[in-house]
Amino acid sequence: MNSRPLPPRLLAAVVFGGTALLLTGLWFGPVLVRRADGVSWLLYVGLPGIAAAVSGAVFGRPLAHPRGPANDGPAFLRGAGIALAALFLFAPLYATGVKAAEPGWTSVAGLTVLVLEFGGLALGWEVVLVGGLAGWGLHRLARRASPPGVAGRQANVR
Fold it and tell me: What range defines the domain where residue 30 resides?
């Protein structure tokens, strides 16, 4: 059995994407189960997971491969920032998906602005909290997985 750890960017993508899939699936799943509609699953569960995975891969490497001294506060803040970046990525993805599924319904730019406004107002604090907790948890997991004294001296791993 190969026990090589995942590359840091992939690990961050899996953690943030999996967290988003789990939470949106739990939130929207009971309603979406009644509908045999794959587009709804993609819009309300798949796209948040994709946006979070991409944001985690782009910004989450320092959480998955810590090099400095252990500090949980910046890890929480980075996780919250990754979640906000995912929200900013999700809005145009969602607007494009709705436009493709319902042609003529609305403009992509207008729906993107609406999703950012109302998504930020209604769910912004929850996105920040869950993202911060995911970042903190990933940081703790990576610290625990690295041998003592090595985390501060590791080379830059991509």
Answer: 8-145
